Structure prediction request, 310 residues.
Amino acid sequence: MNTADQYLKTIYVVQKQEDGPASTGSIADSLGVSPASANEMIGKLEERGLAEHEKYKGVRLTDDGIVRARDALQTYCIIERFLANVLAVEEFRDEARELEAVIDDTVAERLDTIIDRQPECPDCFDPETDACKCLDIAAAPVEPEQ
Amino acid sequence: MVAVSVSQRIASDDQLARLLQIGIVLEEVVEARAHHHYQSLDAELDEEIETLLADAAEESAEHRQRLESLIEGLGVDSVPFDEIESLVDARYGRTQPEDFDGILYDQLCNEETAYKFYDDLIEAIEESNAEFTIDRAELLDELRAIREDEAEGVSEVTEVMERR
Prediction:
């Protein structure tokens, strides 16, 4: 996932959390970058018609931006679900964040063929837990009762 | 905190091992899907596609072994093929191509996806300053060789598709 998509995904999630425009500070915090870096990328997203920045209010995604952000969030959900359920990674949230930049959408789509994702994805993404609400984290097979 | 980009490059053996594991799973998916396609070809066997799929499955198995050797060098376990195969089995029906064209297209996606994965992985390693337990030059040589195979795979499938 490229940097622009990581920003779009984050703005989308922050916008939902704040129920309004996403502040540059929140976006920078979520991504672990400086506000100056965040501002620079937000400017690029504006130039590409994916976001609108209102002074003193924050950033709002355009319709095109929302479509791309939802695709990016879906890719992220696939990576999390794949790490948690196929590779049984306990720290799947941290690892998904570390690896998302190296995993392309087309790769995620192929990984998606072996995971069991819900049709409502990515609306099931819960920003509080930074994971899908339906993600069955206790993925280990249940031992049959004796 | 001064971060120029949010893109994080591979910083440790663990991250590298995880990405190699993902490579193994991709190869396993390719191998299992190619095998399924191969079996789904009915009595009117199409020799050209049959050979293509058999070669693809064989190549994926070989790539898997090469990746396994790399992650063995990092002291990490591989991903058991039978588990991935059963996941592919469980989900294959929902994403199964319907005809020869679909099978070829799916195979093209497999090869292109694998190429993109290795290409991104190589770039991420090249941009990383991390010291890995395994030799960086050997690691990159191996991954570049596998990427080259995938590029050839894309051309082979494309040629067959164009001829038909």
User: Anything to note?
Assistant: Helices of chain B lie at 13-40, 47-73, 81-95, 100-127, 136-163. Residues 36 and 92 of chain B are 8 Å apart (CA to CA). Chain B has a mean pLDDT of 86.
